[in-house]
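Q: What residues go here?
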């Protein structure tokens, strides 16, 4: 990434995103290309997670959201689901201390109640232990689906209307946003998808309304610091118009 300024120009810091969201796709293909089981791809993918978290922390990006397991991923073979849950357990055990030490706050978005009870408990503990951290907020999307999230928000809003504490006419876009799992988090500026598929796969349907989209053919286990820096460089060249001229 070039932060260099030509001499004489005023020093305007290059615009970095406030919130980066990533669809971490391609673990299975990475493994299959090497005639390995898909599980190896997920294990290798966990290393890419570490590299991307560290890079965002270093650059001072305030929010990073990683799509780790979708509501649809529950339809995968049980063996693969079990392996992914095992990897998540290992991530919490192995990275918990680093998150605390590096001042990183962990938040889970998605239907955490669907995860195995022990994993839920350790995730909740780590969320509690990192709640006051402020260098980077790492949102892990687990058992997450954008439609599921919006449906849960609709239910919560309907309960308030039924209780008589909310007037339907006063419901705004802010009301909806305040009932999503991402309440209080700015919308993503950048949505990255690795693995080359040109689809959103039920990720951040509401929040990504004006995200700049980057699809790279790089498979997730091969994605790292350099790939992320290239995305940021390209982001700085984009003109965001938000519907204006
Ligand atoms: C993404 O990699 C990780 C998860 C969805 C959990 P995939 O497992 O989808 O890998 P491909 O897309 O089959 O290569
Ligand atoms: C999206 O990848 C979900 C995650 C990365 C967690 P998928 O591999 O599940 O998406 P599809 O099936 O290609 O749409
Ligand atoms: Mg995939």
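A:
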């Amino acid at each position: 990434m070039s932060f260099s300024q030509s001499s004489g120009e005023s020093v305007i810091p290059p615009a970095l995103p406030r919130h980066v969201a990533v669809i971490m796709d391609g673990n299975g293909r990475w493994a299959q290309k090497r005639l390995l089981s898909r599980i190896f791809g997920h294990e290798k993918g966990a290393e890419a997670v570490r590299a991307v978290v560290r890079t965002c922390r270093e650059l001072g990006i305030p929010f990073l959201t990683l799509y780790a397991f979708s509501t649809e991923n529950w339809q995968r073979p049980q063996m693969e689901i079990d392996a992914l849950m095992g990897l998540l357990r290992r991530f919490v055990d192995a990275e918990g201390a680093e998150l605390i030490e590096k001042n990183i706050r962990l938040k889970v978005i998605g239907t955490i109640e669907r995860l195995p009870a022990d994993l839920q408990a350790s995730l909740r503990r780590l969320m509690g232990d990192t709640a006051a951290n402020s260098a980077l907020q790492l949102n892990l999307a687990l058992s997450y689906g954008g439609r599921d999230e919006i449906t849960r928000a609709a239910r919560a809003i309907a309960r308030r209307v039924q209780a008589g504490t909310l007037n339907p006419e006063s419901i705004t876009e802010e009301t909806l946003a305040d009932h999503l799992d991402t309440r209080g988090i700015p919308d993503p500026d950048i949505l990255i998808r690795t693995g080359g598929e040109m689809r959103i796969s039920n990720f951040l349907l509401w929040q990504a309304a004006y995200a700049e989209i980057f699809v790279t053919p790089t498979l997730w286990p091969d994605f790292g610091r350099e790939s992320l820096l290239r995305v940021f460089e390209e982001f700085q060249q984009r003109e965001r118009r938000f519907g204006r001229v």
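A: Context that may help when evaluating the design: Residues 89 and 118 are 9 Å apart (CA to CA). The first strand starts at residue 19 and ends at 23.
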